[in-house]
Structures are given as structure tokens and as C-alpha cells.
Please model this.
Amino acid sequence: MHNSVQYPIGIPGQKWTKQDVQQWRETTSVKRTYQHDVLPKIEALRATLDVEQYGALSYDTERFPLFALKTKSWCADKPTILVTGGVHGYETSGVHGALQFAKDNAQDFEDEFNIVIVPCVSPWGYETINRWNPNAVDPNRSFYANSPAEESANVMALVEQLGVPILAHIDLHETTDSDESEFRPALAARDGLDYFEDSVPDGFYLVGNTENPAEAFQTAIIKSVEKVTHIAPPDNEGKIIGSAVVQHGVINYPLKKLSLCTGMTDCMYSTTTEVYPDSPKVNEQECNDAQVAAILGAIHYLQKHA
Model:
């Protein structure tokens, strides 16, 4: 449905100028801090995981160092699982679900797998509760060569430096009410397009890969998560956020075409989680638990089938 509400920045029908981006950036503010919320949790894991700094954001290198967590018994002969969170910094359970898994579960699987966890890809977005980086660029549409998002470029460089193939990639996200109230209208305004209103699904869902859907892998994750939280139903057209539901709680995207995080490797198994934190049926801890359940469902499947 077309929405006539005009975003307050930019001229309708015209892409944003540098001045528009600057005006947008000036509307942002720090609402929580990476240094307080995230870095201490990473530091506390040094006894059980290898903590490696893989870069820093140029916006403020002291404030935004970037860290990855790796299982200690790393071996190039073992299959490698990549977990990413906070590609969209405002999606809170992506960050804290990744950290919860790192603290409570990662060690349990290090004899079978190498596991690398990047808990907060976009710390500026985390602090400002934003989907974009300060340049109004979406990191999760920027996983390609010569990326305009340094958040994405840093993660791609990290994965390349690992020097091992990635078997599976689980990218932790949320779909929030603010997607419709703020971020999609802003996107339309930035690109000089009309905004068409959509609905926010109430519940958890997954985004698989159109080119390699790995149906049984997705099913295993959904079964794991539905023990923790409810799964999003399709809308009246059999869709979730405009895409056809291909199985219970699962839609597919062309990952590489859209330059999504889970498309940055040629892994056999990939999924993007989508938790709905604004549901009255869940609380913050249950959202984190759902992210952990998704990772565990993926790993348990890989133990049997990979």
C-alpha cells in the first residue's frame, strides 16, 4: 500500500545529496554505548575463546574497535562455522545472542568445528540504534568488493584471512516495528523512491538462499527455535515481508545479488535469523535465547549431516 507520509529529509523523487546525508546524520544520537554494553562481555571471554581484533571503524578508532571470537582448538582440517551479529546495529538480540552463544555454548563444539563469532559488526549502529552507518549506507547491502561500508569490508577481510572454507554461516538479525516507522521510509527517501507500506510479521522467521535453499537445514533451525518463541505466520498472500513463504517460517532471498552478509562466502549452509522483539509475547532474554536456539539448531543439524 502506498503511503503518502513524506520523510522529513530530502526532496520527494530525488536521491539524497551529501547535505541530506549530513542532515540525517545530525538527527542521530548515542542512546547506548558499545564500550559499556559489548566490549566488557567480549573481554570476559578471553579465558575460553581467542579474542582477535580485526579492525576498527575510522569514525572513531578508539571507540569502535572490531573483535572476533574464535574457538581455541582451531584446526584447518575441521569444518568452520561463522556466526555474525549486529550487522544492523539496532537489532539488539543479534549482538547479545551472539555473545550469549559465545559464553555458554561455543566451547561445546570446538572438537568438531572451528567456530568464529563476530558479535557486533556495526558498533556505530549499535550505539545510535540505527540500521545504517554514518554515511547512510546499509552494511547488509554492501558485502561486495570495494564495499562502501567499512563495516562490511572489515568482516570480508577477516573471513578471507581465516584461510579456510566456511561450511555454514548464521547471521543474526531482527525485524522490528521501527523497520516500518523509520527505516524503510528513510530508505525510500534516500533513494528518491515512493514508500510502500508493508506489515511487520509477529514472530521469528528465517531468510535462506534462493540459489541454495538448504531446506532441511532451515527446517532444523525452525524446530529448534519454536521451542523458545513463536514462528511468524504468512500474511494473507502467503508472504512474509513481501516474499513467498517456502516452508514454515522460511523465505528466500538471492543473497549475492542483494550483497547480503550471508552471501559473502560460498558456504553450503547459510541462514539469516529474524527475531521480532516488539511482540508482546516475548521479552529481551527470550529474544537472545531464540538467537542461540537458531545457532544450536544449525550446529546440531551439521553434526548429523555435514
Q: What stands out?
A: The beta strands are 49-56, 65-71, 80-85, 114-118, 166-174, 205-209, 239-240, 243-244, 250-253, 269-275. The CA atoms of residues 140 and 260 lie 5 Å apart. The two ends are 43 Å apart (CA to CA). The longest strand covers residues 166-174.
